[in-house]
Amino acid sequence: MMTALNTQVLARAQSGMRRALASRLHRRALTVAPVQPLVSFSFDDAPSSAFDTGARVLEHHGVRGTYYVSLGLMGQPGPSGRLGGIEELRASVAAGHELGCHTHDHLDAWQVRPDEFLASVEANARALQRILPGEHFETFAYPKSGAVAAVKPALAQRFLACRHGGQRGNNGRVDRDLLAACFLDRQQHADLSFVRHLLEDNARTRGWLIFATHDVAADPSPWGCTPGLLEAVVRHALRTGSRILPVREALRAAHG
Ligand SMILES: [Zn+2]
Q: 70 C-alpha vs ligand 1 centroid, how far in Å?
């Protein structure tokens, strides 16, 4: 008979196996060797506070970010606050930020069939065409648990790169369909000393560090950060001589 402990051990083994397969199969190499170390800021989902407060912090320093949006949830309330609506998306693109794909329905690739997941990616592209004709998603971020090997080849055909989590930077030869990100959020306890260490390592090794968060608010959700932390991270990134670019532009600069 299956005990609770056995079920837990089995679930952990399945997650480990899924992660290992996603990272080992269908790799598309990218050599990260930029002239200047690279830093990107990305906002997943993305709440209104990321479009106003988050953008204000970046724009104050003359830099831009990437918003990974699920257009099926546009304007709706979410766990990290109300998500951005059409006007916020349009203003963001006009200001030079990048919109990236996060599936139309914020699907977890670990929980749905690959064909459902990919249909939601297609639906997001169609929704973007209705809102901002002529705009295209060029990069992708996995919602929730992350990648599965079965969807990687189809996403590789559609996007220049895909991002997940990992709490680390991207150095040397990496998989462009599984770029790592460091989440700046309360849940990950990402404080400034941890981030400074990452930024200094990234500058020394001339790598590419991608930050991710959700809401940007004085009292953020467990998935968000304060404007003060975001501001401090941007300042420190610039102090280390890093170039701050949206994910799409950073990809082009990654080759040096
Ligand atoms: Zn998300």
A: 8
Query: Distance between CA 121 and CA 137 in Å, rounded?
Result: 10
**Cα dihedral across residues 232, 193, 251, 52: positive or negative:** negative
Local structure of residue 53 (DSSP, 8 states): I
Q: Where are the domains of the chain?
A: 4-253
Those residues whose C-beta lies under 8 Å from the C-beta of residue 141, and which sit 6 or more positions away, are: 42, 44, 68, 100, 101, 102, 162, 163, 164, 181, 212
- In one letter, which amino acid is 146? G
Cα(12)–Cα(162) distance, rounded to whole angstroms?
24
Is the bond preceding residue 154 a cis peptide, omega within 30 degrees?
A: no
Alpha carbons 102 and 193: distance in angstroms, whole number: 29
How remote is the CA of residue 198 from the centroid of ligand 1, in Å?
23
Distance CA 206, CA 106 (A): 33
Q: How far is the CA of 143 from the centre of ligand 1 (A)?
A: 4
Angle at 223 (CA atoms; ends 36, 11), nearest 5 degrees = 100
Chain position carrying tokens 């971020």? 141
Q: Are 127 and 88 in contact (CB under 8 A)?
A: no
pLDDT in tens, 167-203: 999 999 999 999 999 999 877 777 888 899 999 999 9
Topology of domain 4-253, per CATH? TIM Barrel (3.20.20)
Give pLDDT tens digits for 51-83. Answer: 999 999 999 999 999 999 999 999 999 999 999
